[in-house]
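Notebook B, p. 112. Complex prediction, attempt 2.
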Amino acid sequence: MEEPSAAEERPAVPREAGPAVPTAATGPGAAPAHDAGDGEGEETGAVIATRALTKRYRGGQLAVDGLDLTVPAGSVFGFLGPNGSGKTTTIRMLMGLIEPTSGTAHVLGRPMPRAGRAVLPHVGALIEGPALYGFLSGRDNLLRYDAADPTADPRTRRARVGAALDRVGLTAAAGKKARAYSLGMKQRLGLAAALLQPRRLLVLDEPTNGLDPQGMREIRTLVRELASEGTTVFLSSHLLDEIEQVCTHVAVMAGGRLLTQGPVAALAAGARGRLVVTTPDVADAARILKEQGVDDVLPAEDRGTVTAAPPKGELAELNAALVTAGVRVRGFAVERASLEEAFVALTGEGFDVAG
Amino acid sequence: MSRAEAPGTAVSDAAVSDVPVRGAVPQGAPRLNPLWSFGLFRSELGITFRRWRTLALLGVLLAVPVLVGIAVKIETRDGSSASGGGDGPAFLAQITNNGLFLVFTALAATLPFFLPMAVGVVAGDSLAGEANAGTLRYLLVAPAGRTRLLLTKYATVLTFCLAATLVVAVSALAVGALLFPLGELTTISGTRIGFGEGLVRALLIALVVAASLVGVAALGLFVSTLTNSGIAAMATTVGLLITVQILDQIPQLHAIQPYLFSHYWLSFADLVRDPVYWDDLLRNLGLQALYGAVFGSAAWARFAAKDITA
């Protein structure tokens, strides 16, 4: 009954004439997906691939504008953007909850939302926070969500629910009514619902929202664990250092458009780092650095550091010049730009300002 | 139900995990057992009938025959006729002769408002309540499937229609048997039928009353697809119910009245005639089927294409 029909295989034709990017992935020649090896996911190694994905709400508001997103298989993919930048709309389109205005979205190599019933059993999702039946216990909530999946075996249901509860550390509270749960517990239960079956893709929208630092650590550990098992994790978060800690790839959205995507290291490297000299002789060090032709020298007397733009010449010579001048150098390094600096350089605005 | 009957070997997890991770295309369809689809219906029944609100509605329906029975008993202690003061619901006068008539009276008393209101609450909340709580998006990404979820919801509401009607009927039968004599009963046509035959008629009436609620159920489900607020959907459905009942009372509107879903509701009394007078009964069932088809289709058209933003 789930055998894909021929019509299902045709990549969606953009209803508005968007900029058609004829890639192998979306070309009309793409082979039927039940010929598993020839699907687009195989060719591009992409678990999520969107082409010119656009959503305009009925009010005329353009929420997502020509998004070309590629999430490589096996990656932990950070999805960043200020509030209102279109992240959630994108996630909802990927999950088949919202119909795109134009463009295509492929998840696990199949078009969404049309192939939803074949794709979604392999996808665990936490979208815009957990939603629970307050009058049911935590365990009954999971039993309910598992029953909604027609591919979930009812004979293993209780065992799988138990394992999911255990995995997020909720076993002790499983019998409690969900309305009595704290925000962090609800978040954990939502995560457990995403882990009811072995998944090939996890979409986690703000998974550490409402968790205490201990809980955040646990979630990060869990994400790494799942990634090491081969699950691709698509993670949206406001916490940049969280993304930096767990993600291999990152994409940044603002105002409905994709600003950049790629490996985290590449993005951070794109933003210029800083030369940091730690010394008790701040004024002298700053003077010497300027004499050596270093730009943007900022002495910070209180912290005992001088920062500057990374010099073009040999670092060791610069260090030698400082030492020769009698500056007591206690630390000398070029610090890589943080993701946050890269992010602010890209969006050019406060993180929580709607784009 | 599906748990025990599911045939075949246990392959559930293997079917998912033996697919290579990098070759990200799902291999055809996930392995499906058609019976597993009914798990959602079972879950839905559990959710509906475990809710405090549903139990309260059923409790009210349970209480109606008890109140009617006690009232009639007190009124007739001195041997006077039950309907002496005025015209109550149909069959009120016969209750003292035969407790079985309490079933007919209770259904006649609850069908115009209590029963459809209860159905309107359950149907109106069915999808809008899930949207309101945000659980709808998780059901859909599970993936429940929009058509499957809608069918499951409608089946559950219809089950509630039947359950609610049976609660009234069974409660009335119990109270009638406790407070009044049972035995042969006199039909509206004046003939007498045996108690067994009477019980069969009572069951038929309960089924017809339950079927009379099909239209309201479909209407409520449709309204439920229009909004993300369960309360708004419930209020709208019950409001429409009251409006239709009022329109059905205005003589100048007799041209449209045969198309109002409540118009033939009380035709179930024709089942207590001998022989049964089928015309209005069949018109009622046809009208309910029409409402079910029209508003069921409308609900599907709306829900299948809806952007789920809640």
